[in-house]
Specification:
The chain has 305 residues and is mainly α. It contains 14 helices and two strands, in the order αββααααααααααααα. The radius of gyration is 25 Å and the shape is globular.
Length: 305
């Protein structure tokens, strides 16, 4: 056998081994991501109730959502939540990482303590917050009463329901803190030493050294946070059903687009319309993500330009 034929056989074997190793991920994407997406896109043009064959309706589902007040309310709630939660989670996560990026005794224990809430199951966290925010006898109102401070209705008040969900979401900001901490520990010390020699204050070091060097980490967290915020579901689902009045209550102040899609699909069995709503949610997330990717050249520093 010639050396070229032997080299081709070795290359083919390496390629096959590589495909075998990545095949679980590839098959998972095909079966659980791409195929459902294509199916949802097709069903969005149909009248489908899961029990009978889908009937093609063209763009009627998309025309219907334009005149659907609950759709616009759900978009408003989703964007409002994202606008409140995303910057707060970034700022708090980075602030915690800066505080925990110190070489002091017991720092590993503190990092663990702040990280643990992010790995607690979401349903368990939601149940805990139902007790904390209970307007009659809840832990928060009890503490406020003991301090002679005004109490609130929290999840049962249309004005405070959405901010309460933002507060609950910030409970698990420790996951982002770990990512920021890894980015901070990747900044070379010599940059700070050079800045100190030039007379830069701590604030200037943070602004001109820390932020540019961790900007890829900030961008990564921004993208993931945007996608997660736009698909916010579990806590709103559990807390909305437990607050009395059902999902999206009170007064649809917590009717996220994902919650509305669930209601249309599994309460009213209008799967075609639910798929159209899902496609619109995907388009919104894609558009916002592309905007962020288009803006990264103005503020993300990768060290090669």
């Amino acid at each position: 056998m010639s050396s070229s034929a032997s080299a081709r056989r070795r290359a083919l074997r390496r390629n096959l081994e590589g495909w075998l190793f990545v095949s679980p991920v590839v098959l998972g994407l095909l079966c659980w991501t791409l195929t459902p997406f294509v199916a949802a896109f097709y069903f969005s043009f149909t009248n489908y109730d899961l029990l009978s064959a889908p009937i093609f309706r063209g763009l009627r589902n998309y025309g219907r959502l334009l005149g659907d007040p609950l759709f616009w309310q759900s978009v408003k709630v989703t964007l409002s939540f994202t606008a409140m939660f995303l910057p707060l989670s970034m700022i708090i996560g980075l602030g915690m990482a800066l505080l925990l990026n110190q070489r002091v005794r017991g720092i590993a224990l503190l990092r663990t303590a702040f990280y643990i809430p992010s790995i607690v199951p979401l349903v368990a966290t939601a149940v805990l917050w139902i007790w904390i925010l209970n307007p009659t006898g809840g832990l928060l109102n009890t503490a406020l009463q003991a301090l002679h401070l005004p109490t609130g209705l929290w999840l049962t008040d249309p004005k405070s329901a959405l901010p309460s969900l933002v507060l609950i979401g910030l409970w698990s900001v420790g996951g982002g803190m770990i990512v920021f901490l890894a980015g901070l520990q990747g900044v070379p010390e010599e940059y700070y030493e050079a800045a100190k020699i030039d007379g830069a204050s701590t604030l200037r070091q943070f602004w001109h050294v820390t932020l540019p060097m961790i900007s890829p980490t900030l961008f990564y967290q921004l993208i993931l946070g945007l996608i997660a915020s736009m698909q916010y579901f579990t806590q709103a689902f559990v807390l909305g059903g437990a607050s009395g009045g059902g999902l999206g209550e009170p007064a649809n102040s917590t009717l996220f687009l994902s919650i509305y899609i669930y209601q249309i699909a599994f309460s009213y069995y209008q799967m075609g319309y639910a798929c159209a709503l899902s496609v619109v949610l995907f388009a919104m997330i894609l558009a916002l993500t592309l905007v962020l990717f288009g803006s990264q050249r103005f503020w993300v520093f990768y060290g090669d330009r």
